[in-house]
Design a protein that fits this description.
Elements: H1 14-26, E1 42-46, E2 53-56, E3 60-64, H2 65-68, H3 74-83
Parallel strand pairs: 1-3
Antiparallel strand pairs: 2-3
GO molecular function: metalloendopeptidase activity
């Protein structure tokens, strides 16, 4: 399988992606998110109508209730109902 991609290729198929991942693993390349594995993740929900979310060093995520109001999925409505 050819591992090259050119601009003329419109879609990278699953076969190409799997080949690329295997090639990376075989060469010892780490996942782009491997540095996030050992973080002590913490999510802070702020009860303010602002539409905002941001991250801080060390795995801290701050989400404002105002943002959760704008999503229509069940999980966001559940989160909003439980935090407001």
């Amino acid at each position: 399988m050819e591992g090259n991609w050119s601009r003329e290729d419109e879609i990278l198929d699953d076969k190409w992606i799997e080949h690329s991942r295997k090639k990376g693993k075989d060469s010892g390349v780490k996942d782009a998110t491997s540095h996030l594995v050992d973080l002590d993740w913490e999510i802070l929900v702020v009860d303010e109508p602002n539409v905002n979310v941001f991250c801080l060093p060390g795995g801290k995520i701050v989400v404002f209730i105002g943002l959760l109001k704008h999503f229509r999925s069940d999980i966001c409505r559940y989160s909003y109902d439980n935090w407001s």
